[in-house]
Amino acid sequence: MLQPKKQKYRKQFKPRKLPHMSHRGNEVSFGEYGLQVTEPGHISSRQIEAARRAIVHYIKRGGRVWIRIFPDLPITKKPPETRMGGGKGDIDQYVAVTKSGQVVFEMSGVAEDIAKEALRRAGHKLPIKNVFIKR
Known about the structure:
The chain is of the alpha+beta class. The chain has a domain at 33-77 and 92-134: Aldehyde Oxidoreductase, domain 3. The chain is 20% helix and 28% strand. It is built from 2 helices and 7 strands, in the order ββαββββαβ. It has helices at 45-59, 112-123, and strands at residues 33-37, 41-44, 64-67, 73-77, 90-98, 103-108, 130-134. The strands form 2 sheets. A 4-stranded antiparallel sheet has the order 3-6-1-7, with helices on one face. A 3-stranded antiparallel sheet has the order 2-5-4. It is elongated, with a radius of gyration of 17 Å.
């Protein structure tokens, strides 16, 4: 799973509001086909890995896959049945903050119908609505 090697501070404040439209990273840059999210949200490192594995499994290691997001925001969680207070909880997971219009995965080296199906399967692993795009 993806997570930062080193951070200046272990825990971060929770962001107040999610960003809206992405002005950077909203086009296919590296490959021929891409998976673009259509709403803002968080994608955890486990979800990114599950989607990546779905792509690689379907294309049978045929093409090339790029992951365009990185989970660098730590999300903390207190244990269940814990009383209030006692400080901030331990880090539970790392998430990537995505804006609407951001390209999450890219791929090349396979036919369009295979790429479309592989990215469709990967899209089912993500908690955000997404669409298939091509260069």
